[in-house]
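To assess whether ligand presence alters the predicted conformation, the chain was also submitted together with NAP. Input:
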Amino acid sequence: MDIKAQAAFEGGSILSEFSFPPRALGPWDVELNITHCGVCHSDIHLIDNDMGMSSYPLVPGHEIVGEIIHKGSEVVDFVLGDRVGIGWQCSACLQCEWCNKDEEQNCAKKLPTCVSQPGGFADRIISDSRFAFKIPEKLSSERAAPLLCGGVTVYSPLKYHNMGAGNKVAIIGLGGLGHMAVQFANALGCEVTVISSSSDKEKEASSLGAHHFICSKNKSELINAVNSFDFILSTAPADYDWSMIVSMLKTHGKLCFVGFPPHAVSIPSVMLIRGERSICGSNIGSRKTIREMLKFAAENDLGARVELFPLAQVNDAIQKLKSNKVHYRAVLVM
Ligand code: NAP
Ligand code: ZN
């Protein structure tokens, strides 16, 4: 039976119905009946070909949860009926320096789920089981789906940079990634500040676990926070006054990018030299980190706050996401 999906047929287009036959099941593959798929801002970057890697028709969707209905001959980690998730990455060489260090996200042969194969805005998917993850029983599918990309993307740098009790962490952008970052940073014991362009998000930031709130449109609030943070995680797909943001780092503080601002980031080197501050980036998270993050989320009762949309209304979800109106992750229900 054909897979029924929603696809973009050219850069920037709205999505429309698209049916296609599934690929033959390989030895490591599983086939899922998809129940839920989050809508990540990276899906919008892909639809619009912002990263120059898209080809059409493009079926977006890489925050997938579903039930295994078929499996290949080599699949021993899962049984039919298991509830599993699939995120941004669907393949790597599993042999190189980076794969051997549990950093498959840095493998030169890594492949993204909804670029190298049709993604999760569909009723079914066939994908490599070695990049599928059992969803802990305690997590509902709708709250778990956005953890597979957005969740691990913010959990991974917080852990990698050893953020915990005694650290002051700021999260720029309270959207899909940002609202999960606030929950993770709080659960790790950090003192959390949200830096948001939306003044009306203060109450919700606090309910998610933020201790302080800065509205980025109010420059005096930014200036008051100069030399304050050990770590600033930028999730906004937007340009900020990055010199101002770097000045808010303490000595040895780090500004870490996970969101993609549309323009190059330019900062006077003196701002990094004085105070020995640094700027870095972080790319999703490894398979090991995804498993750890799912366990941590289940233990701490964390997950996405979601707005549900039927698959047929995917364009409404995308429109709402583009206008920064989703609280806080749109999730498609199949
Ligand atoms: P999202 O749900 O749209 O949230 C982004 C938030 O950024 C918005 O809620 C808004 O928060 C802020 N923002 C948006 N437009 C802005 C503007 N013009 N000016 C100032 N702030 C703005 O997006 P998301 O799904 O969280 O994704 C965020 C970014 O992370 C995207 O660029 C995505 O591609 C990227 N990403 C990267 C990775 C990785 O591996 N590095 C993985 C997943 C996603 P406020 O209203 O609070 O300002
Ligand atoms: Zn994503």
